[in-house]
Design a protein that fits this description.
Largest sheet: none
Radius of gyration: 38 Å
Number of strands: 0
Strand content: under 5%
Length: 102
């Protein structure tokens, strides 16, 4: 159980309220703070959850954009390598035919 926020009231207030009244007042204050604490925690959690969701959506969008860029770069790289391989094969075929004719 959580520790109460207030354990006693100031002496002057206790004199006005009496012992029983002061105890009831302290219980009332502690209950009120406990209830407000729960409400605040719920609000903070909801805001955190909303913010986390927003940040995740931004992250996903950035991630998708970067993946798309990587795919384009990979496609360009593969196309370039394919051109070099085809060129090398054609050049080697020509060179091989010259060597065979000798």
């Amino acid at each position: 159980m959580a520790m109460p926020m207030f354990r006693r009231v100031p002496r002057k207030l206790e004199e006005v309220l009496g012992d029983e009244g002061a105890d009831e007042f302290v219980d009332f204050i502690n209950d009120s703070f406990a209830a407000n604490k729960e409400i605040v925690m719920e609000l903070v959690f909801e805001r955190f959850e909303k913010r986390l969701s927003e940040e995740l959506n931004v992250f996903r969008a950035e991630y998708k954009a970067e993946i798309a860029e990587l795919r384009i770069d990979m496609h360009k790289l593969i196309a370039s390598q394919t051109k070099w391989m085809v060129g090398a094969i054609i050049a080697l075929t020509g060179i091989f035919s010259i060597i065979v004719k000798l």
